[in-house]
Amino acid sequence: MSYIDELFKSGVWGTKEPKEPEWVKWIHRNLSENHCPECLKLDGCYFLKEKAPKHPHHPYCHCLLNQISYNTVLKNAKAKSSINKYVNYLFSPKYKEKHKKNVMFESWGYTVEDSKYLQLECEQQALEKYVNGDYDLGLLNQYGQRISIRISIPRKDTGETVSYITGWMVYPNGEIQLTTPYGGK
Fold first, then answer.
1. How would you classify residue 144: left for phi > 0, otherwise alpha for psi between -120 and 50, otherwise beta?
2. Nearest-angstrom CA–CA distance, 49 and 92
3. CA distance 89 to 180
4. What is the pLDDT of residue 41?
5. What does residue 29 show for φ and ψ, rounded to 5 degrees?
6. What is the pLDDT of residues 153-179, one digit of tens each?
7. Residue among 130, 132, 133, 141 at smallest CA distance from 178
8. Nearest to 156 by CA among 101, 120, 113
9. How confident is the model at residue 92 (pLDDT cuts 50, 70, 90)?
10. How far is the C-alpha of 111 from the C-alpha of 76, rounded, in Å?
11. DSSP secondary structure string, 67-108?
């Protein structure tokens, strides 16, 4: 259950308020002439405190983790994805034999015509899960910090719910961007 749901429930039932999630903002400090490319990419990014990248990230790391309010995360967080990740990648005939990611979606009844629905549903669920800290850290390198978020959609043929992993990149001020619409089961 999300923090907001627990807070509402405590107000309705008069029970103890839940503890607010602790979020941090990674701050890269420019205190030397050498700059770690990974720390530079983390600068300004929001993370749930217990799901932040290792800090200090390396010996002589000058970065800070500044605590930010959950309200700041809720107010600023955004999940973005390009329709091209669906139309020109997931369902593209060019990639069908290369990655076969379309096979799973097509077995659930989805086609390229459903790309806009999939994009919006993925963004909505990813944003909700990100602000609730329901993500897993992935690879961190000079391109940035990746996270994985599980998405659930109904099968079009049976209505049964299926879930799968999506891949995202974390950017400053609570923005996450889709890197892959299907990263595994």
1. left
2. 38
3. 9
4. 96
5. -105, 135
6. 999 988 899 999 999 999 999 999 999
7. 130
8. 113
9. confident
10. 33
11. EE-HHHHHHH-EEE--THHIIIIIS-HHHHHHH-HHHHHHHT
Taking alpha carbons only, the member of 125, 121, 142 closest to residue 43 is 142
- Locate the DSSP E strands across the chain: 23-27, 46-48, 64-68, 78-80, 136-141, 144-154, 161-171, 175-184
Which strand (E) or helix (H) includes residue 126? helix 115-131
Residue with tokens 């602000």: 131
The structure tokens listed for 135 are 């993500």
Rounded to 5 degrees, φ, ψ at 104 are -65, -50
The rounded distance, in Å, linking the Cα atoms of 66 and 138 is 22
8 Å CB contact between 106 and 112: no
What are the structure tokens assigned to 76, written together?
């600023």
| Number of neighbouring beta carbons within 10 Å of residue 9 | 13
Closest CA to 96 of 114, 118, 111: 111
Pairing of the two strands 78-80 and 23-27: unpaired
Cβ partners under 8 Å of residue 7, min gap 6? 17, 18
Token pair for 113: 């015509």
Question: What rounded mean pLDDT belongs to the chain?
Answer: 89
Q: CA separation (Å) from 9 to 63, 104, 132?
A: 38, 37, 16
pTM over 0.85: yes
